[in-house]
Structure formats: C-alpha cells, structure tokens
Amino acid sequence: MPQRTFSIVKPDAVRKGFTGAILAEIEKAGFQIVAIKKQSISKEQAKGFYAVHTGKPFFEPLCEFMSSGPLFLMVLEKDNAVADLRKLMGATNPANAEEGTIRKKFAGSIQENAIHGSDAEDTAAFEIGYWFAGHELI
Ligand code: ATP
Ligand code: MG
Predict the structure, then answer these.
(1) How many angstroms does the Cα of residue 86 sit away from the middle of ligand 2?
(2) Best substitution site from 62, 74, 131 to test ligand 1's pocket, by max atoms within 8 Å of Cβ?
(3) What digits encode the pLDDT tens for the residues 33-88?
(4) Calpha distance 138→136 (Å, rounded)
(5) Nearest ligand, CA 56
(6) Distance from chain centroid for Cα 48
(7) Topology (CATH level 3) of domain 3-136
(8) What amino acid positions are annotated as catalytic residues?
(9) DSSP labels for 57-125?
C-alpha cells in the first residue's frame, strides 16, 4: 500500500546545486513527489523539527545549519516509502554510506549530509504535519 514520508533537500545540497540531481534519484527510485516547497526556515523552526535531538552535542550547530539557507521540504509517496527512502539516502555519516546512495554521492560531512528522511511512519506523520497544511497535499 502506498505510504508517505517526509524529506528535505538540506541547505548544503541546495547551495551546491545538487537539488535537481537529488530529485532525479528520488523519482528514479519510484517515489511520487506529492508536495514540494523551497523556503528558508528559522532556527526556532529547526529546533521544533529536530526536538527529539534536544540537548545532544550536535543539536545547536544542526539547527544553525538547517536555518543557514533555503531548503526544499517534500512529501514523497510510494510503497514502503519510509524504509525505502532511508535506504536510498544512506548512512548519516557519508563516510559510512553505501555506494550509490544519495549521501555517498552528495553529502559533504556528517552534519552537511544533503538530505533528511523520516525514520518511521509516526515521525513521518508528525513531520508532514509540521511543514504542510492539509490543503497542500494533493
Ligand atoms: P535526518 O534525521 O536528518 O534524516 P538521520 O536520521 O540519518 O538524519 P539523526 O541521528 O536523526 O540522523 O541526526 C539528525 C541530523 O543531525 C543528521 O542528519 C545530521 O545532519 C546531524 N547529525 C547527527 N549526528 C551528528 C554528529 N555526530 N555530528 C554532527 N551532526 C550530526
Ligand atoms: Mg533522523
């Protein structure tokens, strides 16, 4: 059954001009782009989005980075979307990412790692609702 997940092309990848190539990988892997919007987010918005990481040593720099420039917020759909996107993304640290994954190809560091993907169906539902209104999800 089709499932929805939430994804971000992070500011590092947008700055480097990798957005189109990353979207091509996503579509080639069989995802439909249900919704997409480019915007800059505030540090406060980033903190709310990554609230699960509050207090971790990388939390403040992560929120600075995520608010450092425009990004693309996306809702993606396919069978098994959550797990399949995580597989397509590769490991958080690009040094550990498998060959052929988006992070292997496009990530610069463990922080500036090109793409976000929800890690479970319930977090996907929270994250979609955090960034998109119902009327934006066609
Ligand atoms: P994301 O949630 O962005 O899809 P992830 O699930 O692979 O990534 P998380 O553990 O949820 O990884 O961490 C969220 C983000 O925080 C990472 O994608 C990365 O940008 C940053 N991050 C995680 N661990 C570190 C670290 N040790 N040092 C620097 N940044 C980190
Ligand atoms: Mg995560």
Answers:
(1) 10
(2) 62
(3) 999 999 999 999 999 999 999 999 999 999 999 999 999 999 999 999 999 999 99
(4) 6
(5) 1
(6) 15
(7) Alpha-Beta Plaits (3.30.70)
(8) 116
(9) TTHHHHHHHHTSS-EEEEEEEEETHHHHHHHHH--SSGGGPPTTSHHHHH--SSSS-SEEE-SSHHHHH
* 29 CA → ligand 1 middle, Å: 23
Output phi, psi for 4, to 5 deg: -105, 145
Do 89 and 117 touch, CB atoms closer than 8 A?
Answer: yes
Residue 17 CA, ligand 2 centroid: distance in Å = 23
**Using 50, 70 and 90 to split pLDDT, how confident is the model at 135?**
very high
Name the residue with the closest Cα to ligand 1, atom 7.
92
